[in-house]
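FW: tagging you since you asked about this chain on Friday. Here's the raw sequence from the shared folder, copied in full. Didn't touch anything.
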Amino acid sequence: MLRILINKKIIESNNLNKLFEQYKIINIDLGTGNGKLVYDLALKNPDTFFIGIDPTASNLFEYSKKIQKHKIKNIIYVISSIENINDDLNNLADKVYINFPWGSLLEGIVKDMPEILNKISSLGKSDAEFNFTFAYSSLHEPAEIQKRQLPILSSDYLLSDLKDIYLKANLEIETCVDLTPTEINVFGTLWSKKLFLGKSRDIFRIISKKI
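HL: got it, structure written out here
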């Protein structure tokens, strides 16, 4: 059963197909935070169905209410961690976004944690695009790096060691770019603002395909 947030109430449902059966394209935003980014995407792309997934329902209340108020049909918020994600979402997405993750979700995309990366990979259809944007640094997050034994981020690491890790999860890294501060302003999430306000750091985006 999927736990779907409607206004401030979580509804359990197993009728997900009925929500998106008229849509040819389905995109998933994993670790959606306050849900603003995927909400904005849904408004701009009415022919695409969007699923925002996050374990913390309270962060999503504002945009969940807006969905109901404006009767937006092409978006839902699912309440779940990546560890407990429902199999009903497997092989569903044409594109999977992860933007500025933290905790186990961040670990799962930057180091060898097949139990997490395989779950992420399973969300996509064959040939789906996976678009991950993330950052951390030894200057600003030394405790988190030590606690989770995170690797030092660099283009060399992402395109060599991490590329081999992704292949084991049937994901092939195609590009790795370093974003500018201007480019991250489009995300508009509380977490991205907290991470980057007044701080100079590298922001990486990797794009991969499911093979």
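FW: The radius of gyration is 17 Å.
HL: agreed, and The first strand starts at residue 2 and ends at 6.
FW: great, closing this out.
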